[in-house]
Amino acid sequence: MVGGSFKDTALLADRALALLKAYDLPAEPQYYALLYAYVAERDPLLNEAIDSIIRERGRLSCEEVASLHRVFLGDASDLTAVDGSPAKLEAIFEMIATAALSDASDTAIRLAMARDAINDPDAHYSTADLVNRLVAASRIIDQRKRRIEMELAEARAELDLLQTSLDHVRHESLRDELTTLASRKHFDDALSAAIMEAAATETPLSLLFTDIDNFKSFNDRYGHQTGDHVLRLVALAVKQNVRGQDTACRYGGEEFAIILPRTPITQATIIGEAIREAVMGREIRQRSTGERLRRVTISIGIAGFRPGDTMQTIIERADTCLYGAKSGGRNLVVVEVDPLRRHSV
Predict the structure, then answer these.
(1) pTM, entire model
(2) Which of 54, 200, 213, 275 sits 20 to 30 Å CA-CA off 112?
(3) Within 13 Å and on the Cβ side, how many CA atoms surround 2?
(4) What is the per-residue pLDDT across 28-41, written as a single tens digit (0 to 9) for each?
(5) Inside any domain, residue 1
């Protein structure tokens, strides 16, 4: 505060004296002058230096006050540049300000450059206070750097936690909760990737579509809980008959889809038959009564990749084969390249 009223300056004086008392410092001119400059906020660098000391140790020592007084309240005439021009001095303090925004290694370089500028043989001013100010600035920069590093570490921990949560949400969105098979969204991504691989490597790809026969009537008669049990049973039969490279999905409702990369349609037919037989061989009982329910069967349609295929075209052919299995009496596997319908034994 410059040019304030008596009331204003008296208030600052009271605050400075209160700080002398609080930190048990002698009521001598240099101590009072430093703390008066502090409460008047005349020099941001001074305030930052005092605040940092108080944050670290909770007090000010006589030695620290004397050192700060020498650095910040020394003879101003020592800071006058040659030819009465302050340009070079301003450039030096610009280096200090810029250094505060730089990382540790860059800060050291900038401070060294500032010291070199001070020691310029063409300069005719005292450098003691400037060097002390540079040292103080370096100390403040280091403290700020430590604070920033702590804040960055906290932010990084929060980001890691957020990423874990996002990964979990993403994983859940790609999995069907009831059957634990992959979801429809994952099916779309996996089939697109499999088609690109088959086209690029000229390897076979088979797509298998399956549907539970008469599931709606089964669900209506025995209830949704029993219907969910049947869905899980079919999903289990699928899981037990696919390999690690395959992708088994719940396509929607009672429909399932299985993507079989690097698998010719003859091998896909064997897999389809194994799944159909596994489902047909399971005994279903109503949990509440123990009543044995009618046998569950599935129909399956299989299509193989053709050059130029898109997701839509191969899905349409697999769906056509599935429709053929349904219309042909159900509990069948129908393959597009072999229209012979394989009936259950």
Answers:
(1) 0.52
(2) 54
(3) 2
(4) 888 888 888 888 88
(5) no
Q: In sequence order, which ranges of 86-183 are alpha helices (DSSP H)? A: 87-99, 104-118, 128-173
Q: What is the pLDDT of residues 77-108, one digit of tens each?
A: 333 333 334 444 444 444 444 444 444 444 45
The reply to whether 254 belongs to the active site is yes
In a shared domain, residues 58 and 197: no
- Rounded to whole angstroms, what are the CA distances from 53 to 61, 64, 145, 259? 10, 9, 15, 67
Place of tokens 């800060």: 107
Among residues 63, 94, 202, 254, the one annotated as catalytic is 254
Residue that finishes a domain, picked among 116, 146, 176:
146
Mean pLDDT over all residues of the chain? 77
Q: What is the dihedral of CA 34, 40, 45, 51, to 10 degrees?
A: 80
Q: Do 299 and 190 fall within a single domain?
A: yes
On whether both 235 and 319 belong to a single domain, the answer is yes
Q: Please tell me which residue, 285 or 216, carries the higher pLDDT value.
A: 216
Task: Give me the CATH number covering residue 215.
Answer: 3.30.70.270
